[in-house]
Amino acid sequence: MREVRKALLHFIEMLGRHDYLAMPQGNIIINYVIKLSESASSNEEDIQRMCSEILQMVSLPKLITLACQPSNTLVFVLLSKIATDMALKARSLGQVPYLSSFLLSPTQFISPQKLLTHLVVFALKSYRERELGISSLRLLHALHPITSLDPVINSNVGQLWMKEIPQMLQILDDHTEKNLDQEEWEDRLLQFSSQSLVAINNDSWLEQLIKVVLERINYFSDGEEKDFLYKFFGFTLRTSRNMKLVKTMLSSILQSVHEDLQDREVRWRN
Predict the structure, then answer these.
(1) Distance (Å, rounded) from C-alpha 64 to C-alpha 142?
(2) Which secondary structure element, helix H or strand E, spans residue 159, and what is its range?
(3) Is pTM, for the whole model, over 0.85?
């Protein structure tokens, strides 16, 4: 079976060299490679290596979109490492990864707002699930600027991230899951997120972010991720200057909290 997989991967690699993976039907093959890399055992390093080489042929926006899909959480570390290497390589060649495809094809690729929210929530997990937090911060660092093609926004956010993210990574390097103060780490993430929103200073961008955060809040049933997102939601509202939007989103979050309390009451009675 192993030799069959290797032969199939060699064929897929050949297809990738002819840009087949960029076609719509290539998604089926990409998903197969991702699942194969996830299931490959530790003694199948050659299979894992071939999968990684094929995934490097996928475009950066598509690779990041796949990495952030809930179904690919177990393979997020691998996908994010490949994406990080691709972004850093592009930067070294003078091709700053503005990720314009995220804006030009919002239905095809993950939006910058969803990406930022996803990576910040993963950063909350720090060392768990094979270092999800560390991998997400490294990817975020490699991808700046992530917000838009606006040079002012890019400059402000870029300077902030170049300063703050290495310091945050150093904190994780200096600690372990056992001795990291999770409360302090959460405060640091919220401070970083708040500073990023101030640097973005774009109401239309923040409006989309607020909607994304609310969607994520409704996605989680309970736990520290949901508590964190409530706080992140508050920081986002505080940054927005659109009072009509703030009132609408406050109404939505209050309704969400009310429904959440009702669900808890039902579960307690049962």
Answers:
(1) 12
(2) helix 151-174
(3) no
